[in-house]
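Progress report, Aim 2. The chain analyzed during this reporting quarter is listed below.
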Amino acid sequence: MKLRGFLVLVTLTGALQAISVVAAAQRPPGAAQQAGPPPFVSTIFGDNMVLQRNKPGAIWGWSDPGDHVKVEIAGHTATAVAGVDRRWQAKIDPPAAGGPYTMTITGDQTVELHNVLVGDIWLCGGQSNMQFALRQAQTGAEDAKAADLPQIRFFTVGQRSAYHPVNTVFGSWNVVTPETAGRVSAVAFYFARRVQQETHIPIGLIVDAVGGTPAESWTSIAALRPLHDFDVPIAETERIAAKDTGPEYGNFVMHWYDDYDIGMKEHWAAPNYDDSSWKQVTIPGGFAELGVPDTPALVYFRKEFDVPDPVPTGRNMVLLGIIEKMDTVYINGQEIGGSSWVENPRQYFIRPGMLKPGKNVITIRVLKTLPNGGFMSKPEDLRMTIGDKTIPLAGSWKAKIAVDARPPQALPIRYENWPVMPGVLYNGMLAPLAPLSITGALWYQGEQNSDRGYQYRKVLTAMIGDWRNLFQQSNLPFYIVQLPAYQPRSATPTDDDWSDTRESQAVVAETVPNTCLAVTIDTGDPNTIHPTNKEPAGDRVARCALANYYGDKKIVFQGPTLAKVERRKGEIRLKFAHADGGLVTKGGDKLGEFSIAGDDQKFVWATARIEGDTVIVSSPDVPNPKEVRYAWQSNPEATLFNGAGLPAGPFRTDHWKLETESARPY
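Predicted structure tokens for the chain:
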């Protein structure tokens, strides 16, 4: 079973409702460029902030060269002088954990930061499942109402792609209250709530996550270059960056549009554009009439439709079914959504004020790459809903080719219209945080890397080292949330890319010092990549921190882990470590999901039984078993737990080639 790297919602309006992330147009053009001189005090510092305890903390900003700057908090002081580059940086020993304190920064200007706590700062990174807000979580509404937690603070870093490291981030510190808690990352919230309740230490959360993004976007090009897996995108990224003009989209396809799309240059989506010379076509379809039935092409489709007076309010939507490869939709010249997301159907909300009484124009730009691409759904699946009225969109349209993309015409090397370029989120959202003193990092990501899941172990290892180097903490704790269950369950033993990705996550946690894996295979949702049950993930990374960083030896932080394999006649005996409270079956009426294979490498379902801290696996169909796999599919029946209630992670005893082992990004 082959799974792709399923992504997050990338429409401008949050259309698929999976998660409230805007990524198709990430920011206004040029927003990643420095607008004017950087501030006297870096934007990562502010009212309600948390200052890292027990280690000297860097405080920095910018002022006139030679300006003498003094930082003071609770009688602790530090000084710095602004250099020729205008940057000043002081390193201050923090006062005792707790607070609140006031920090005063004095130079050519004076800034007071109020309600400052001293505690532990955790950097919470990843893609949409880390970004996923508490208000969207299963019990998030109730948990937010009860979240009067002044000892927990959060800073959500604004999305920003950059082709060179920037100075500052967008965002502000917030106290966790019933009014603010709904906005914080759910996983980060559940982590912080447990850690703070058990340690009584103030906790600061810096949420640095963007939906649909791969690990290489969060890693510097310098750290990726030695891998040589990213030579092609690195070269293209550096070519684009060298232009030093225009928006820093952080993806390849938007730059391709800027270079080649004459429809964008000539405003073909404008409501008053004269399309009288365009060809009449029928959709679904349309490409054959334009002479590009089987070849890559970028085509604009335009159609007029009527809207009553007054304009109906409510959920006015455009529904386009399945589209290959990428679509962008405009109403009266205003973009309402655009996606190359692999999840279909495409659905876009029409924002209030975009429609007008009488004649309106809808324009759809489609980049087709496959012979059967473009509009791929039945005619009845293409429609618009305006109030209680349905307007069919199948049928006659005006159309024109913007780019005939047959060779030798260049195509973008990737089609995502959100940040995927190597290094761009490292530059825009991580580099400006350094050299902040922090406690550690939580990481929930992997979905976007799953189509090359085996390679992920290399990328993640490089990224962890890169972050530790950036924050000048060589042994920075780094705790990984393993991917949960997803997709329909396979009725037969299989290999898929999510299994390969989970193994890579486990390998990294086993081989990279001071890391920990939070297994979540017993959670998830087969129908959505954004499961709402986020508390287990937060709780389990909290266990990692409490046991490994805070030294609470009573905390069980791992489920059963394979320690020894004994191959016997007709069966395989698996011995487990971390069987705290004994091995148990949970979540099913039998122990599953084990498969077994002989030398032919053909896995079949096996019978498994618990004996003490071992599991005996066998099958009458495999008289001479050689290898075992457990929970080895995207959505397995994972029922092996320890008495402390933690699940065993997926594993295999074989070293046979995996599905994604030969996959490369380019």
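The radius of gyration is 27 Å. The chain is about 15% helix and 30% strand. These observations will guide the mutagenesis work planned for the next reporting period.
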